Amino acid sequence: MQAYAMGIFPMADSRTADEVFWVEPRSRAIIPVDGFHASRSLLRTIRSGKFAVTLDTAFAEVIRGCARREETWINADIERAMLLLHTLGHAHSIEVWSRPDERAELVGGVYGVKLGRAFFGESMFSRATDASKVALAWLVARLKAGGYTLLDCQFMTRHLASLGAVAVSRDDYVALLGSALGDGAAAGGAARRDGPGEFWALDRLLESAASDGAGAPPGKVIAQLLGHTS
Q1: How far apart are the first and last CA of the chain?
Q2: CA 91 to CA 80: how far, in whole Å?
Q3: Which positions ≥6 away from 101 have C-beta within 8 Å?
Q4: d(CA 206, CA 225)
């Protein structure tokens, strides 16, 4: 957690690698919490309720889904560390399921670490069209509802760029991180916890929306939070 507070994150060379190394990129990808780009088709999917979306119901399965690739930086040590962080309440997952009933299958998800008003997105996976995009959209909505100011995506990809990610320099990233964690938190030492994000604010908002009148479906609330009300 101290490493994350300093802008550093762990990686391994492969799934079977024995060693973990620490990374501090010169250029960092972030998604501005107010700058997520959702296509019309993605918004229709979110509103439709095609997928069921949950929080922290299958954290271990999401990590394994992210690690089951030909090339992965998630080795056994990183997986164990993330499972421990999840147990301690520092790491979370958004799960996307094929249908909202007992026969649902996990078809996508994203996981990461939260600290202060920052969320460090670690990895995501998809086994169905738009599943990982839906997971990321729900994550952004959760961060927006909770007053978070930084969504770290580590390295830029075309996929992330299409969703609104921008590249910032190391110095700019450290400044954003320091603001999200408290003055001086990213300069070294442990992070201060003053003014952390409200990670569960979205759940209260969804409960309130469901109880008002006809009850707004979750997908509509997510689309509204992302700045799309039509």
Answers
A1: 40
A2: 12
A3: none
A4: 11
CA angle centred on 54, ends 49 and 59, rounded to 5°: 145
**Beta-strand relationship, 118-126 and 150-154:** parallel
SS3 call for 186? helix
Other Cβ atoms less than 10 A from the Cβ of 128: the count is: 16
Residues of the chain with pLDDT under 70: 100-102, 183-195, 213-214, 228-230
pLDDT at 229: 44
- 197, with CB counted inside 10 A (0-12, 13-18, 19+), is buried
* Average pLDDT score over the chain: 90
pLDDT at 101: 64
What are the backbone angles phi and psi of residue 221, rounded to the nearest 5°? -65, -40
Among 58, 172, 162, smallest CA distance to 110 is for: 58
How confident is the model over 30-74, as pLDDT tens digits?
A: 999 999 999 999 999 999 989 999 999 999 999 999 999 888 999
Give the Cα separation of 160 and 153 in Å (integer): 8
